[in-house]
């Protein structure tokens, strides 16, 4: 059995959900009524929306200064060597490190999404995709990047993911406030997420095959693995929510017309 299969089996095991407390929380809520978290959700989504917007602007600003885009002989978009931890930072390099650290911490704060789902008893949303995402992004992924390969290209992942999160938390903010967002908008956000994982895959592949010197190999392998897993999970989400559902609606309409 390959290591990938073993890891997959472990992560899909219901015991894994026990370890991180999701099953226990769901069980606890089963005996209770859904909690009204409307104001709390609005506040949480607004915080994440503005924090994500800040991270997009700040990574672009500091990366432009730090990497030297626009300057003659300035750095490339990809393949900037990750600084060794402990090395003195330039002014903009230190500011970039601060944004990345905020991004890393935001991954822990994103567990609030799970709390909202549990309290609302929206079990449909507490999917394997959701649990896997929240259980692996803060640790080991961002933890490993911040400890072993900060700086360099890390701004790219932070910037792309924060851009997607501006759209995602904007959507959740409107939904939490009771606004009926058109399905086409939801589909566009899932498409953005798929493009994001495609970009992350290309970026990791570039590190694996071309710029082999710029990041520790284990980090590159971790990024490749995550890009493939997330692309598969979000592809499945897309298929179930937009393709199968619209096929179901179309056949229901056909049956209603025939009746
Ligand atoms: C369109 C998506 C962004 C979201 O899909 P959903 O199926 O969750 O969308 P939905 O239509 O059910 O969302 C509306 C419901 O969410 C509630 N809601 C509001 N704020 C929320 C919050 N912060 N977290 C969780 N739920 C929230 C609303 O009140 C509403 O509840 P009600 O229905 O009761 O009115 C999708 O592409 C997606 O990401 N799906 C995966 C789900 C997931 O776990 N995503 C977040 C982590 S992944 C991630 O973050 C990837 C990345 O980095 O890009």
From TrEMBL:
InterPro entries cross-referenced by the UniProt entry: ELO_fam
GO molecular function: fatty acid elongase activity
Keywords: Fatty acid biosynthesis, Fatty acid metabolism, Lipid biosynthesis, Lipid metabolism, Membrane, Transferase, Transmembrane, Transmembrane helix
Pfam family, one: ELO
Biological process annotations from GO: fatty acid elongation, monounsaturated fatty acid; fatty acid elongation, polyunsaturated fatty acid; fatty acid elongation, saturated fatty acid; sphingolipid biosynthetic process; very long-chain fatty acid biosynthetic process
Cell compartment(s), UniProt: Membrane
Span of the signal peptide: none
Gene Ontology, cellular component aspect: endoplasmic reticulum membrane
PANTHER family on file: FATTY ACID ACYL TRANSFERASE-RELATED
Record's protein name: Very-long-chain 3-oxoacyl-CoA synthase
Source organism: Coccomyxa viridis
């Amino acid at each position: 059995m390959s290591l990938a299969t073993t890891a997959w089996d472990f992560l899909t095991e219901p015991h894994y959900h026990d370890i991180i407390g999701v099953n226990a929380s769901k069980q606890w809520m089963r005996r209770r009524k859904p909690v009204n978290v409307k104001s709390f959700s609005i506040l949480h989504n607004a915080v994440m929306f503005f924090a994500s917007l800040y991270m997009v602007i700040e990574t672009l600003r500091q990366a432009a200064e730090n990497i030297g885009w626009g300057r003659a002989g300035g750095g490339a978009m990809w393949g900037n060597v990750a600084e060794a931890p402990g090395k003195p930072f330039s002014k903009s390099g230190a500011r970039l490190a601060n944004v990345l650290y905020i991004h890393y911490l935001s991954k822990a704060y994103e567990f609030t999404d799970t709390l909202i789902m549990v309290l609302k008893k929206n079990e449909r949303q507490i999917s394997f995709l959701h649990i896997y995402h929240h259980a692996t992004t803060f640790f080991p992924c961002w933890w490993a990047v911040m400890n072993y390969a900060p700086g360099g290209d890390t701004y790219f992942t932070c910037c792309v993911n924060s851009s997607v999160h501006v759209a995602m938390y904007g959507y959740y903010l409107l939904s939490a406030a009771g606004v009926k967002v058109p399905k086409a908008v939801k589909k566009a956000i899932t498409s953005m997420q798929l493009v994001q994982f495609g970009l992350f895959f290309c970026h990791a592949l570039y590190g694996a095959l071309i710029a082999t010197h710029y990041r520790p190999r284990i980090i590159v392998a971790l990024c490749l693995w995550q890009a493939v897993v997330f692309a598969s999970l979000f592809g499945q989400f897309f298929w179930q929510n937009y393709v199968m559902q619209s096929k179901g609606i179309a056949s229901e309409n056909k049956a209603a017309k025939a009746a």
